[in-house]
Design a protein that fits this description.
heterodimer, A: two-stranded antiparallel ribbon, 11 helices, 2 strands, B: about 300 residues, Rossmann fold, Alpha-Beta Plaits, 6-stranded mixed β-sheet, 10 helices
């Protein structure tokens, strides 16, 4: 029966990837446009007035954070939109009627989120090359952080979609939680620039660890030790995986 | 072996509504089974539980001997579902909807494509294979739902109001198709509001009302419970007044149409023997089609 589940997983993953390619102008393009604006305004116009941070020009310093921001937003929004659409149109029933294990539904949806997050991350990286020189300190850390972060936010998107009852509910988390955390997660500044209170408070922001771990992979500098960041992202991913699996297994907000 | 076995099935919704009050039901393999009942009777809840879309409160469901709790994979492999409401992704192409559904059942893509082509052709949808589902008419969407329910070749197919809102021609086409797959050995369980549909297609029917099974028998046996027969007579000329014949009750439908009801054991010859001296000329006659409806209403009203 494992064979059955692997085919089901392949099918759902393919469906998810085909979905975001079908609507590429809504899924792949917007981040590129935003990145161009960020690089022009923050990197080109404001950056030279800020000067150097941790030995790097401002535009070089913010580039990893901007790439990571795209990965986070796209992996989250891909899964939340796709799963909520599936639930809203009730084609989640196609999966519940079939002998698909809950872990297959889970991995199928988050595979789509990871794929889009990584692809948009790659597109944004290429866009960044038009504005600045990119550094590579550790390829392993770069890939590990991108994959784990995309997975973590895909899981978060799935949980958001599971509990959402209307379209408004899927925009509340991105608007009021994800975006503020991303902007306050050290994308545009170093923790050293903050007062001790705000610095301590920032350590409660999970996005800080991802941005800094990715920055370490590219620049070799980070406000948080990379091992701690990776451990934090890994533990969060495991916790969210089991929570999501439990919700799907119980049919929370979908069955009954 | 029974295609479907339900034992003491209960469902209480979180709001306290008791949708099913301990239903026992068996459907024989190869049967064409009708599940009838008024709105809110518990039909959809029953189907939802069988199809793993609703969590039951208690009870046992077996599909071809496979317990849905103990061996869900084997049980689900045997079951196909055609829900009442369109629940596919409207933005996906028809062929993708079918191949994806096949994939969820573990059918490899190449094989799924062959099956999808077969069912799309068989149900007259091949020309729409690469069109988005939202572009289909209501009737074609209904056919797509049936194709999707059959894509993994289930041995038991459940159809929830499959002909709701479709025109007569399509309804007849779907009936013929369902009879054809039933003849090939697929057990069909059908819910319908069209009692004529149940009468024409089903061998066995069960009636649910207020979460309880109030009847489970053959259509033939159910029909035999009808004590009265009703005929519709088309007359050559309008009547000045309705005939009065002992044992026959007349109702005027329009100027040249009357309905006559009488006990089943009464011979129709008596009717004509009485009408002829009164100068009533009958051009044609037919059975009133909603006989089962009458019985159904009697049953659910009695309870």
């Amino acid at each position: 029966m494992n064979y059955l589940n692997w085919i089901a997983l392949y099918t759902l993953t393919r469906r998810e990837i085909v979905r975001f390619f079908r609507i590429w102008s809504q899924t792949l393009l917007p981040s590129s446009v935003s990145m161009v604006l960020y690089f022009v305004i923050f990197g080109g116009l404001i950056g030279p007035r800020i000067g150097v941070i941790d030995g790097y020009r401002y535009i070089e310093y913010i580039a990893p954070g901007l790439i990571m921001m795209s990965v986070i937003n796209n992996s989250f929004s891909n899964v939340v939109a796709s799963f909520f659409g599936t639930k809203f149109q009730r084609n989640i029933e196609e999966m519940y009627v079939a002998p698909m294990a809950s872990w297959v539904i889970l991995l199928g949806f988050i595979s789509g989120g990871i794929a889009r997050g990584c692809l948009v991350g790659l597109i944004v990286t290429i866009v960044a090359l038009f504005f600045t020189k990119l550094h590579v300190h550790s390829v392993t850390v770069i890939f590990l952080v991108v994959l784990l972060t995309a997975m973590l936010f895909s899981l978060a998107g799935l949980i958001n979609a599971i509990f959402s009852k209307k379209f408004d509910d899927i925009s509340i988390i991105p608007t009021f939680i994800l975006t503020p955390l991303t902007y306050l997660g050290g994308v545009f500044y170093s923790m050293h620039m903050l007062s001790p209170f705000w610095k301590k408070l920032s350590y409660l922001n999970p996005i800080l660890y991802m941005v800094n771990a990715f920055r370490y992979g590219m620049l070799g500098v980070s406000d948080v030790p990379v091992q701690i960041s990776l451990l934090f992202i890994g533990l969060c991913s495991v916790a969210l995986y089991f929570w999501t699996w439990y919700l799907l297994e119980k049919g929370t907000a979908m069955k009954n | 072996m029974k295609a479907l076995t339900i034992r003491n099935l209960r469902k209480v919704y979180p709001n306290g509504i008791q949708a099913l009050k301990g239903i026992d039901l068996e459907v024989a393999e190869g049967d064409f089974f009708g599940l009838l009942g008024p709105n809110g009777a518990g039909k959809s809840t029953t189907i939802g539980i069988i199809a793993s879309l609703v969590i039951k409160s208690s009870g046992v469901v077996e599909i071809l001997g496979h317990d849905l709790d103990k061996n869900p994979t084997a049980a689900k492999m045997q079951l196909g579902l055609v829900p009442q409401e369109f629940n596919f992704n409207m933005f996906e192409k028809c062929i993708d909807i079918l191949t994806n559904q096949a994939g969820y059942y573990g059918i490899p893509y190449a094989k799924a494509l062959v099956r999808a082509e077969y069912y799309l052709k068989r149900l007259g949808l091949w020309s729409k294979a690469y069109h988005a589902a939202r572009t289909l008419s209501g009737g074609l969407k209904r056919r797509l739902m049936i194709a999707r329910g059959l894509i993994h070749d289930p041995k038991v197919l459940i159809l929830d109001e499959p002909t709701a809102g479709v025109d007569i021609e399509l309804r007849r086409t779907l009936w013929a198709f369902l009879q054809e797959i039933n003849a090939k050995g697929v057990t069909i369980i059908l819910t319908t509001h069209y009692l004529e549909e149940a009468e024409s297609l089903c061998k066995q029917v069960a009636i649910i009302n207020h979460g309880e099974l109030i009847e489970n028998t053959t259509v033939k046996h159910l029909m035999s419970k009808l004590h009265r027969e009703t005929l519709v007579l088309d007359l050559k000329e309008p009547l000045a007044s309705l005939p009065v014949i002992p044992g026959f009750d007349f109702v005027q439908k329009d100027e040249v149409t009357i309905e006559v009801s009488f006990m089943k054991e009464t011979s129709i010859n008596q009717l004509f023997a009485a009408l002829t001296p009164l100068g009533v000329q009958v051009l044609s006659l037919r059975n009133k089609t909603n006989r089962l409806e009458e019985l159904f209403l009697n049953l659910v009203t009695d309870k």
